[in-house]
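Hi team, as promised in this morning's meeting, here are the two structures we talked about. I've kept the exact order from the run log so nobody has to guess. The first one is mostly here for context; it's the second one we should focus on when we meet again. Sequence first, then the predicted structure tokens.
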Amino acid sequence: MNCPNCGSSLGKKNKCDKCGTNVSAIQKAIRISNSCYNMGLEKAKVRDLSGAVFVLQKSLKFNKENTNARNLLGLVYYEMGEIVAALSEWVLSKHFQPQDNDCDYYINSIQSNQTRLESANQTIKKYNAALQAAKQGNDDLAVIQLKKVTSLNPRFLRAHHLLALLYMKNNEREKAMKVLNKIRKIDVTNTTTLRYFEELKNGQQSLETEERNVEHIANNSNNVNLSGIAPISSYREEKPNIWVFLNLIIGIVIGVGLLYFLIVPNVKKQSASNYNAKVVDLNSQIAVQNKEISTLEGDKEELQSSIDDLKKQMEDLSKESEKYDEALYDELFKAIKVYITSNKKEEVVQALLDVNMSKIDRKAATELYDLMKEKSFTGAASDIYEQGHTYYSQRKYEEAIEVLKQVVEMKDEKVEDALYFIGRSYHMLSDKENAKKYYEQIIEEYPDSSRASQAKTRLKEL
């Protein structure tokens, strides 16, 4: 380890012998960073990728120049299908350690294989198309696109999660479970995967309860009492006999009398008792069915709540996917390639100016762009300004305007002079409106400068 103040070698000492700086806190931070790196390595070996990302990011918080941790974090991102994040980490590692760095092999393996690079680009485009289709309610089209994405990049966890979410939304639980089991082999502790498993488990239990309740109602409604049906008696025809008919008539009369005075009241009483018992039984069945209906309504509310949560998660995924605007990242990739391969500072500066960073909010990409910009823009603004001033002196006003505007975009100390000569170039081209615009900008932003005084004089001429 070297002293951060004077750069001399420290060895295992807590204090620099040359300048006297106490570096015990820095050494402690480096030890913590290395410990977190070892933990991340252990988690990565058992495919706990989400846990590895967490501890490796913590390692870089203690020591951002820990290239081993940064390279491993890039590998973990690559394994999760996040190629943009992986390249960002490797380029940062290359910046901190230009020589003898393993990231050279990782970057070259991607850049040298145009097929792999094009496949990664197509993966992001198709994922964005699938997400847009899902937002518009075209679930079938989104599923088709996501299947293509997962075939191009089987490790793209974000695409697998969206595919499983669409299957869950359309009650295709077996397909969703199959997708989740596949990606659980990639990252065993991914919180999104585990949360979706829990949703599927709770939904399956609710459906089984509902099926049992419906079956119970059906069984109760089919229980009919058939014990009151009497058997048919046998009949034998006899020879006519008048006494038999008389006895029969007398018996009928006596039977009718007994029926009316003795049996009918008992039958009415028994019928009323049976009717009351049936009413009580029906009321009991109605109460049971009402209770079951209430249970089913509660299950319906829980299912609706789960559907609302899934829709919210789709919206969250939609917001997060806006980070994957492939056109913006194409320009960033191009700038990275020029930064690594080109020796001409003007080409690097132009490539960096072409990148629109206002819509890129990933922290790693922003840090990478700022580092390249800081290293490339130093001294470049003066050279570009001299080139623009030479064009102005040669009366090549249109070329001077184009070159000097690059100085304005770089926001260097030459901005004031660049603004003045842009205004002068428009003035000489008789474009009074643009000339006035740049003169007024100098007066407003640099009111105490000599160029502001000259701009006021030129405004009077206009």
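And here is the second protein, the one for discussion:
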Amino acid sequence: MSDSTSRTFHWAVIGPGAIAHRFADAVARLDGCRLHAVCGRDAHRAQQFADRWSRPDEAPALAHTDPAAVMSDPAVDGVYVATPHGQHFDYVLAALRAGKAVLCEKSLVPNQAMGRRLVEASREHRAFLMEAVWTRFLPAYAEVATWLREGRIGALRGMQSSFCFPAPYDPDGRIFNPALAGGALLDVGVYNLTATRWMLQHALGEVPPLADLDVRAKLAPTGVDARLAVTLDFGDGLTSQFVCAIDSYAPNSMQVLGELGAIVLPETFWEATRVQLLPARGTPETLERPFEINGFEGEIRETMRCARAGEIESPVVPHAETLAVLGWMDRIRALAGVRYAFDEAFPAPA
């Protein structure tokens, strides 16, 4: 791929589902890039996606059912993987081996051992790899980072968050099917975990090691986690508590608790456009920070920037950060009693 920032960046999408439409919408409205190809198991659905997001002034996006056609296409600069979690590994590995930049939906893979294999492939083939933690690029989070660095809430005392939604039970669907790495944690709890680590990094300058971990689980009939209540204990009274679920509803907010006040992301914290600073004494402050496009623009721009510069990871979502979150999720699933076939195929190091 050329290092020139003036050349149009050609994207391919693997998995033309709902979240991929949001990605393609951002690509369509960003300068310097275009949708070049889409690959899906259903030819008609892939063609519909390609037609929907082809710009009228450019060549139509190509529709494929064979991912090898994407990997072998020299025009493809970057691959966005939006399939169920259990299918990420094979697609990401193939793209990295083909030298393509990869932006992969979260959770990157079902366990840390698989993640390490992909990071090794990224390094071996000098191909960019980033988990699509788009939350970290949002303007609202930039404001929260400033408040934390300035000590506006004093010493950090704890965090509380929820991400819950009631999904219709379908044992064969991606959310409840263990063969697809279903369950609340990998689907939505990853947001609670990555937000926790982000807050710690900006408040303390680092993520302290876990001193203790408490997990209370409700399992679905398929054996995946339908609901988890988790307490991450970092010692000295500092905790992060969260609930994630696919069988219930919650406010889906996040509160960052401090000695002198609190920061609140009042609803759908992972895609916040509004943040509140609530001092123990003084006047509350509310800031509105809307998306430039739809929230995905930051991670897309970062992927293109890094790929064009020949970098293999982003400082915003580095490989080590993705592996750390996967490590936490491995520990939580173990305590919850949730195991996948992937855990046998890719066991943790002894």
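Starting points for discussion:
The longest strand covers residues 156-164.
Residues 184-204 form the longest helix (21 residues).
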